[in-house]
Amino acid sequence: MTVADMIIDGKWRWPEDWLNKYEFFRDIEVPNLKESREDRVKWLTKQNSLVQFSTNQVWKDLRPDWEKLAVQRKLMTQDRIMKWQTNGDFTCLLCQRGVDSHEHLFFQCEYAMKVWKNITDNSPILSGNIGMFDVIEKIAAMKTQNNLAVVVSKLVLAASVYFVWQERNLRNFKKEERSVETLCRIIKDNVRHKMMSISVKNTMKVSSIAERWNLRWSNNSLVAIED
Fold this sequence. Notes:
By secondary structure, the chain is mostly helical. It folds into 2 domains: about 5-60, no CATH class; about 65-225, no CATH class. Helix content is about 45%, strand content about 10%. The strands form 3 sheets. The chain has a two-stranded antiparallel ribbon. Strands 3-4 form a two-stranded antiparallel ribbon. It is extended and about 70 Å long.
């Protein structure tokens, strides 16, 4: 089906069920078509830029901000489902103890706590902080600072929240599970790769942080240490 197939006598002919579901279709302006040109699929980005359609761009615009959803307690954990569904198993899928909730998942859960402690060993600022909301307050207090330690702390928090939530969903929907060691390796690799895209000056503190992540400074950036 082409755009031309959806227009008759200069008017849209949207299927009725489409209009009932997507009322904004009624407000779309009918384009001036030229028979000599083929249809081209465009995508309007979050920045209101009209670009050539690509699945990569769509994913960038539509993917959820997991860290923000977690902070706002909007992830669909089992404790939220309990509000309208009283029957069911609402036990944490990672440790099988406690109710699956934001507070439990980040990071009171035994599984998630082991992951968090392992990851934060590489981030002195976060070491010793167990609850996600305590960590957020600590990072927020340093919002005026833009040094590597603070940036890494943010990367560690974002990656930990994302992959712990991903692990929870893998167990819930696909019945697959990964060990603490495997998830820690995935999170660390994710943080390391993002650190390698940061431009930094060579200081003793930068070198110390880089070494914790098996990186080294070279030409104003961090690179992997070869085995």
